Amino acid sequence: MTDSFSCGCACGAIRYRSTGPARYMGNCHCRHCQQATGGAYFPAVLVKQSDFTIETGEPSWFDRPADRGHAMRRGFCATCGSPLFLINGAGEGAIVIYAGSLDDPSWYTPSRDIFVKSAQPWDVMDPALPKSQAMPG
């Protein structure tokens, strides 16, 4: 893992970085994340909001309530459509970055799978990772 890292969208219009380490990395299999990624899950990298900076560009936003009712605000590039990051209304002080937007996604190491009750039957999960049926805790 790295203490500082940069990220961006596919077309390069939006660039952002974290000047601090990832606080959590995990795979979310909820239906909302499946729809947002177009895949089986959202590989999530959580960082402190105070470590996060948008360097260039301005994301577009899509807001949707989570299962527990708080706001989930997803940032994406309006030009290329790349999902970038989200702000979870229940997680004050944090930004969750899509691991696919990392300039070097090779260091992404998930610590668990969450919302596995919504996982697709064709999704092959790592059996070594702990599993939570919904949001832990």
Report on the architecture of this protein.
This protein is mainly beta and 137 residues long. It is built from 1 helix and 10 strands. The chain has one helix at residues 31-37, and strands at residues 5-8, 15-18, 24-28, 42-48, 52-56, 60-65, 71-76, 83-88, 94-98, 113-114. The protein is globular and about 40 Å long.
Distance between the termini: 25 Å
What integer is the average pLDDT? Answer: 93
Low-pLDDT segments, ≥5 res: none
The geometry reads as globular
| Helix segment tally | 1
Please state the structural category.
mainly beta
Which key terms come to mind for this protein?
mainly beta; 5% helix; 137 residues; single chain; 1 helix; 3-stranded antiparallel β-sheet; 36% strand
